[in-house]
Specification:
Number of helices: 5
Structural class: alpha+beta
Helix content: 40-55%
Strand content: 25-35%
Number of domains: 1
Strand order of the largest sheet: 1-2-3-4-5
Oligomer: single chain
Shape: globular
Radius of gyration: 15 Å
Length: 144
């Protein structure tokens, strides 16, 4: 499903992370970038180059990504992809799932490589390194 991220809410947020995401999304919009509309089979073919991840396409087109550590939802916003990260909060003594905006991207392979890199960093088996993420993304493009 091609959706619309609420950029105005990010723009007016006091969170530095939200400001950074807004600025990145705004740059992508200014450049006139558009994501390639992919079929479910094309998405799964690209994802097959990343065996560390379990990728499914939900009804409506959201892409559900499960990694060793986390669950993610990727939405195609036409101009870019928005990656949402699942987290837990405690509300009235109960754990609830919440999704928050993690980042925006223009390349599916780079999103998947970033999720792997994030897992490695959080599990203590690697560093967040943009060069490594780019290499993983490039390998995914070669395989697909």
């Amino acid at each position: 499903m091609r959706d619309i991220l609420n950029l105005q809410a990010l723009k007016h947020s006091k969170s530095r992370k939200h400001q950074t995401i807004y600025e990145k999304a705004h740059r992508l919009l200014q450049k006139g970038w558009e994501t390639v509309e992919l079929s479910e089979s094309q998405i799964l073919e690209i994802a097959s180059a990343f065996p560390q991840l379990s990728v499914k396409v939900a009804i409506g087109g959201d892409i559900i990504i499960k990694s060793k550590k986390d669950t993610w939802v990727l939405r195609d916003e036409v101009r870019f992809y928005t990656l949402y990260h699942k987290s837990f909060t405690i509300e009235r003594g109960r754990m609830k799932d919440r999704y928050h905006v993690q980042d925006v991207f223009y390349d599916l392979e780079f999103v998947l490589a970033s999720v792997i890199s994030h897992d490695e960093y959080k599990l203590g088996t690697g560093k967040l390194n943009m060069r490594k993420v780019q290499e993983l993304a490039d390998q995914g493009q070669v395989c697909s």
